[in-house]
Amino acid sequence: MLAALGAGAVEPVALQSVDIALENPIGGVLGGAVTAFLTTLVFGAVALAVRPEYVDRTAASFVDDLVGSFLYGLLGLVAVACATFLLVISLVGIPVAFFLVLVAYVLWAVGSAIAFLAIGDRLVDDQENRLVPLAVGAGINGALVLTGVGGLVALCIGAAGFGAVVRRWLE
C-alpha cells in the first residue's frame, strides 16, 4: 500500500484529546438522602392530615404482615412496569403510561412514608404528636440513603409500604 502512495506520502494522524470530568459522588448521595427525607416527611404529613385513620390501618397492616406487604409491593411494581411498557410501545398509550407512572410514584411515596412512620412509631412512643415518629422515620430513610448500601434497605422498606397500600386498595 505504501508503494501505491509513494514512500513519502504517509499522512500524519491527528490525535484528539479526551476530556474526562469526575463529579463529586458525595453531592449525589447527599442530595438523594435529603430528597428521601423530605419526600417521606411531606407525603407522610399530608397523609396524616388528610386521612389519619387510613394511615393507622395501613401502618398496622405493614407491621402485621411485613413479608406479605413486601411481596405485594414487588408484584405491584412488576405490574406497573409491564403495563407501562405495553402502553409505551403502543404509542397511543404514552399519555396513559405517564399518568400511571405518576400515580404509582405518589402511591409509592405515601406507602414508603407510612412504612417509615410505622418504624418511627416503634422507636418513639408519642401518640399525641404523630409528626415526631414521622420525623424519626424520615430521618431513618434519609440516613439509610446517605449510607449508599442502606439505600437498598430503604428501597425494600418502600416496596413493603407500597405493598401495604396496594393490598389495602385490593381488599
Automatic annotation (TrEMBL):
Pfam families (alphabetical): DUF8173
Keywords, ordered alphabetically: Membrane, Transmembrane, Transmembrane helix
Statement: the UniProt record of this protein carries the keyword Nucleotide-binding: no
Ranges of residues in domain DUF8173: 9-168
Transmembrane segments: 26-50, 70-92, 98-119, 131-164
Keyword Ribosomal protein: no
Designated name of the protein: DUF8173 domain-containing protein
